[in-house]
Amino acid sequence: MTASEGGTVLIVDDDREVVRTYRRYLDDTYTIREAYDGEEALDELDDDVDVVLLDRLMPGRSGGEVLDRIRDRGYDVRVAMVTAVDPDFDIVDMGFDDYVTKPTTRDELRRTVEGLLELDQHAVDVRKYHSLLVKAAALREGKSTYELNENRAYTDLESRISDLEATLDAEAEQLVDDSRFVATLRAIDTAATPEDTDG
C-alpha cells in the first residue's frame, strides 16, 4: 500500500474530540477506523490496517501495552505514538515507527501517515529485490555465461534488478532524510524472510 493509493488508518485515543479532529485531517485520503481504548483498538485491528495512530496514555490498557500486543500478534502494521507524553529513555525499547507529540497539526499528522505508508512500500521493494537476486543467483549457478547472455528473460531480470536498486537507493535516502532511519531498519528486518512477490 502506497501513500498515493490511500490506506486504512486506525485512530486510537480516549478523547473523542481528538479522534474526530484526526478523522477530519485524514478522511479525504484514507479509510478511517476509530477506537477509544486499548481493547477496542485490538478488536479493530486486522491485516487491512496500514497505520495505527496510538495515544500513549489511556485508561485501562495503555498505548504501550497495546503496542506490545500488536507486535506480539505479528501484525505488519506501522504504528505512530501520538501523545502528550514527552519522550523519555523508556521509548528506546518500544516498537513504534514514529513518535508525534501533541498537539499536532493537520500537516504534521498527514506527513506522518504518508511517511509510514512510504516506509511500507520500501519494505515491499526490499522483499521484491531479494527475490530477484535469489532468482538471478540460481540461474548463474546452473547456466553458462553464454546461455545467460542469450536469454531474454535473464537480461530482463538483470534490468529489473538494476532499476529496483536505483529505486531502493532513492527510497532509503528519502527515509533517512525524513528522520525515520530506525523505522526503515525495522521494515527491512521484517523483510528479512522474503516472499516471492514475482511468482
Automatic annotation (TrEMBL):
<dbReference type="Pfam" id="PF08663">
    <property type="entry name" value="HalX"/>
</dbReference>
<dbReference type="InterPro" id="IPR013971">
    <property type="entry name" value="HalX_domain"/>
</dbReference>
<keyword id="KW-0804">Transcription</keyword>
<dbReference type="InterPro" id="IPR011006">
    <property type="entry name" value="CheY-like_superfamily"/>
</dbReference>
<keyword id="KW-0238">DNA-binding</keyword>
<dbReference type="Pfam" id="PF00072">
    <property type="entry name" value="Response_reg"/>
</dbReference>
<dbReference type="GO" id="GO:0006355">
    <property type="term" value="P:regulation of DNA-templated transcription"/>
</dbReference>
<keyword id="KW-0805">Transcription regulation</keyword>
<dbReference type="InterPro" id="IPR039420">
    <property type="entry name" value="WalR-like"/>
</dbReference>
<keyword id="KW-0597">Phosphoprotein</keyword>
<protein>
    <submittedName>
        <fullName>Response regulator</fullName>
    </submittedName>
</protein>
<dbReference type="GO" id="GO:0000156">
    <property type="term" value="F:phosphorelay response regulator activity"/>
</dbReference>
<dbReference type="InterPro" id="IPR001789">
    <property type="entry name" value="Sig_transdc_resp-reg_receiver"/>
</dbReference>
<keyword id="KW-0902">Two-component regulatory system</keyword>
<dbReference type="GO" id="GO:0000976">
    <property type="term" value="F:transcription cis-regulatory region binding"/>
</dbReference>
<feature type="domain" description="Response regulatory">
    <location>
        <begin position="8"/>
        <end position="117"/>
    </location>
</feature>
<dbReference type="GO" id="GO:0005829">
    <property type="term" value="C:cytosol"/>
</dbReference>
<dbReference type="GO" id="GO:0032993">
    <property type="term" value="C:protein-DNA complex"/>
</dbReference>
<feature type="modified residue" description="4-aspartylphosphate">
    <location>
        <position position="55"/>
    </location>
</feature>
